[in-house]
What we know:
alpha+beta, CATH 3.90.470.10, three-stranded antiparallel β-sheet, two-stranded antiparallel sheet, elongated
Amino acid sequence: MLAKASAKFIRISPTKLREVMDCVRGKTVSDAEGILFNIPKRAKDYIQKVLKSAVASAKVKGFSAGQLYISKLTADVGPIWKRYKAAAFGRASKIRRRTSHITLELDLKNK
Length: 111
């Protein structure tokens, strides 16, 4: 692990994030940026920000983006916001608004 970046308490469910993460996990940074640019999902915006942050951390350490690939990319469950909505016959139904924690690690490509 050369560089690590994370984003916490993201207001999107981990399931929706993992769907996009599966497309870029294990790819080089340039390939991942190209794939994320073309995916029509809201989750890609959060992953792009974390990837950009990790690349900036690697550049500070003296590595270029061309040398790196995504070695680890996870979406963990964050706290769940509980809300209630009025239901039929005077009852209330529970709404769970899920949050996520994103972790991304970059490493050197094997040549």
